[in-house]
Amino acid sequence: MTSKYLIACGGHGRVVLDALTNNGQKIDGIIDAQLKIGSLIFGVPIVGDDEFIKTLDPKNTELVNGLGSTGDTTLRQEIYVHWTNLGFKFVGVQHSSADIGAECSIDDSAQVMAGAVLQNRVRVGKNVVINTRASVDHDVLIADHVVISPGAIISGGVKIGHGAFIGAGAVIIQGLEIGNNCVIGAGAVVRHNVANATTVVGNPATQLE
User: Fold this and answer.
1) How far is CA 86 from CA 56, 63, 164, in A?
2) How far is CA 195 from CA 73, 124, 129, 164, 199, in A?
3) Tens of pLDDT along 85-139?
4) Residues of the domain holding 57
5) Which of 7, 12, 129, 132 is most buried, judging by how many CB atoms fall within 10 Å of its CB?
6) How many Cβ atoms from other residues are within 10 Å of residue 87's Cβ?
7) Is 24 within a domain?
8) Strands 153-154 and 135-136
9) How many folded domains does the chain comprise?
10) What pLDDT score does 45 carry?
């Protein structure tokens, strides 16, 4: 029988755990070095740190990435890549209140949280977070390791590059391309393409010096 463990259980981790249990999924334990072994979060025990994962059989274990992001997605990516390279599989979650349109393609490791809306033909890559009440319109391409924060609005035909971070309440108008590892600040209104590794803020969004 396959066991399932959540890695990291801070704020985002608890949201993920809540969504998993809301869907009736059983979580066998939580991996978090900052929390006391044996304590419970939503009835799920803290079982240890990374050393505990090393005792598990990757063939019979699924991991869930509970680490959030406030602008830099690097550590979240590193967790995913490290344990994947050691043979573990990450699984995600789609909250029961998320609204998913026709012909969407969502990687098994992606997380679609409460109230999020994905219109038809959205493509979502590995280790992506689409957070609470984010709105993603038709034909959007979201590359691996992207984090879309609560309330963000992504208009139709947008392409979001690998590892990008989209801040809370940001708006990206239709047809734009957001480069790899970009940061779109909270509340920004993006009206032009954004180059790789660029941070933009404001309305209209401009590059942060």
Assistant:
1) 11, 12, 25
2) 17, 20, 21, 11, 9
3) 999 999 999 999 999 999 999 999 999 999 999 999 999 999 999 999 999 999 9
4) 3-91
5) 129
6) 10
7) yes
8) parallel
9) 2
10) 98
Q: Alpha carbon of 41 to those of 5, 46, 95, 110: distances in Å?
A: 13, 8, 19, 22
List of residues 6+ apart from 79 with CB closer than 8 A = 7, 8, 65, 67
Q: Cα(42)–Cα(56) distance, rounded to whole angstroms?
A: 23
**How far is 103 from 121, CA to CA, in rounded Å?**
5
Q: CA–CA distance from 61 to each of 1, 16, 24, 53, 79 (Å)?
A: 9, 18, 18, 9, 15
Decide if 105 contacts 99 (C-beta within 8 A): no
Q: Which of 64, 91, 118 is the last residue of a domain?
A: 91
Question: What number is the average pLDDT over the span 164-176?
Answer: 98
Instruction: Say yes or no: 63 and 135 in one domain.
Output: no
d(CA 123, CA 140): 6
Predicted structure pTM score: 0.96
Instruction: Tell the residue number behind the tokens 């954004």, with chain if given.
Output: 194
